[in-house]
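Below is how a single chain appears once it has passed through the pipeline. First comes the sequence as given, then the structure the pipeline wrote out for it. We keep one example in the README because the format questions we get most often are answered faster by looking than by reading.
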Amino acid sequence: MKKKLLSFIIMFFLAFSIVLTGCHEIGLSGGPATDANVISNGGMVVVKGDYLYYVNGYIDETSLDKNDNKKGTVEKSGIYRTQLDASGNIQKDKDGFLVKTERVVSKVVGFSNGGFYIIDDYIYYGTPYMKLRSDGVLQNNRVEFHRVKLDGTGDKVIYVTSNNEDVLDWTLYKIDNTVYLVTYVDGKIISVNTANNQVVGTAENSTSYMFLKETDYSATDTHTAPSQTQVFFTRALSRLGFSGNTMCSFDIVTGETTVLADYEEDTYTIVGINRDTLYYTKKSSIGGDDALALLYRRNISESYLTGTERLLSDIAYTSYKLVNTGIDRILATNSTGVYLLESGATRRLVLGGEHTIFAVYGDYGYYSEENALIRFALVGETNSETVTTDGKSYIITNEKYIDYDNRRVYAYVNYTAENGDANTYLNYIDLDTMDSRFVGQFEKDDVPAKPEQDEHYGEEGYEDIEYKPHID
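Resulting structure:
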């Protein structure tokens, strides 16, 4: 009897331990060091140490149904990682596939409001919200934000947007060792403490704003500048009889809004920000309909109120894009072309005609035309060149669909599977060779057909015939 009882107890504890083991997540092994520097936060790719983390592909979230986007089932638009070689190159086999790649996040991250950040040992990402409304309508235009460890374990929901967000802007700020998610949509700024998943505050009725999006991150950085702890924004002036507006700041930690200045005759519109400088246009009501919205800059390294203001251009433009090299270098666009403004002293045409500039990387600006990616030089001789000349169809409709890791440009490309279906996956463009190459992992049914090799490939006397890779 005692032997039977002892056997039963042993079997019980064995079964219990198996259950506990089954409940424990097993993460990916290896990976970058916790204190490794991060490059290119906030988009489709992030480099941390010697690992490239990337969004594998793109999907239109409006095409999803209630059974999609379940954790563990998503491949094409999830987050993967691959280890770079000692020189920082992406390692590929002869057929154009990655030598090794591993899935980290099995949720839809490649979508219209997608993107991710890496801060310390965590990935922060957005994904379509997949719950039904009370009337049975799927809410996949809402965004659900998550945090997950770099090894793919411990995935938790941080925050869910309250409405269907067709145009959502978001970023992360790390302040006093706490990470804050900050979103903007329909004139509303919201700050969320990711340590306790609580909304700390909201600022409403914004008419213009700008987030400081720092793409590079180091654990040793201090984040104490006003631009790193506040969001600057404008709203309508509350006083009757005046036509100007109000400049405000939103404290990311406390959620409090401070009115910095009421401008009774001037209307300010924020167009850019870096760590020490706020850029805005200012239009005076005194000039009536003929008044121009001219570009100014203000030093905000200590505060908005103590900073000095400087006029950068006496010509009005329709859009602006900060150049990430040098101080007060700005691309300004109007109907006649794209101009490089430098320190408020020079103005040089760098691209003729009116274009929507999606990105500025190093000494080049980028725009899209007929599904091709085109870049133009900001220095030296004015010229433009098509970056993608390989016949691939690129999906670049706004700045969210292009990324850069200081040596490669990334964009989504349409591929045709062997069964004829079209699918969208990530590519990178080597800016030295201009070659466009596949990044990622095809789902089983999405793999394109293999090219036919030349009939003499591999035969003696035909050594000059090159192998045709499967995908590149």
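Residues 2-23 form the longest helix (22 residues).

See the next section for the split statistics.
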